[in-house]
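Box 3.1 — From sequence to structure: DUF1858 domain-containing protein
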Amino acid sequence: MITKDMGIIEIVQKYPQTAQVFAKYGMGCLGCIAARYETLEQGAMAHGINLDAMLKDLNEAIKG
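Predicted structure (token representation):
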């Protein structure tokens, strides 16, 4: 399960299928420096993204 405290890069490395979800929410900068140290919560806040909705979609993506 993905949580708000996980690092963005950690999520994508562990669950590559989540890259599409990040792109859907306008976070296509997975290779940027900030993605290396930001948590999902920090990244969502920086981009003005609804964290709960994004978490739901990310966790749906890894269920399959």
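Summary of the box: Helices lie at 8-14, 19-24, 33-37, 40-47, 51-63.
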